UniProtKB/TrEMBL annotation:
It is an enzyme of class 1 (oxidoreductase). Its EC number is 1.1.1.133. One of its GO terms (cellular component) is cytosol. Belongs to the dTDP-4-dehydrorhamnose reductase family. The keyword Coiled coil does not apply. GO terms for molecular function: dTDP-4-dehydrorhamnose reductase activity. The lineage of its organism: Bacteria, Bacillati, Bacillota, Clostridia, Eubacteriales. This is dTDP-4-dehydrorhamnose reductase. It holds the Pfam family RmlD_sub_bind.
Amino acid sequence: MKVLIIGGTGQLGSQIYNILKTGASELGSISRIYSLAEIISVGADDLNIIDLNSVREYISKIKPNVIINSAAYTNVDGCEENYDLAFKVNSLGARNVAIGCEDIGAKLIHISTDYVFEGKGVEPYKESDIPCPISAYGKTKFLGEEYVKSFSSRYFIVRTAWLYGYNGKNFVKTILSVAKYKGYLEVVDDQRGNPTNAEDLAYHILKLALTEEYGIYHCTGTGECSWYDFACKIVECAGIDCIVKAIKSDKLTRTAKRPAYSSLDNMMLRCSVGDKMRQWEDALKVFVDKIKM
């Protein structure tokens, strides 16, 4: 078995790689099938996903059984300001990888986002709900999903949200840094979603990869909160003396619109391989304790 991780230097890609190499995660051991697998992890410097010919040649050369595409342009405001780049990476990049997968009959796991939804709901979005993105990031990621469905016959589209991991920058690390050095934070309380530990997401992706239960999946931490709630819990877990003030989104100067409510329901996980995603508070505490060590 051969597994190719595209976007391997990012938060999720690096977490998947680490779990594959150690054979275990915080949620438990992974299948022994992976113990004999060849793992190939590539970043943007190794593989340019916006070049179709390069992608097809690379995939045809190494012939992986499973490809996990976690590469994306995730700067939400940056996508608004540079739509062409967002389209190339999030849409055409997804198409190119899907075509490369289909060339050799490989399984494709493509990572997407809660931002494909408009955010006007009051209950967690299910996989059957119709996307209606309101930002360039959401629109290009949704088009990427459509390309995957059009060009690959063996795909898992996995939507996640509010992701944080041990490698790279994220909301949790930013809050910890600012709280420690300034002792004061202002965080919006009118956007709600699901904080997701990359460890939990990686574990479930690797479970899905061994099945043929193709389709669209939501995979986020259990429970929901606002960014303000999230920040308060981060500060509490770290034991930092910091004042956290709730503000409204219109107080911030941002280029892109954000969905006010983008909580996801992991219905497909429950109905297939099982949903072992941790409560977001529990997963966060483990994460903060580890990075404090």
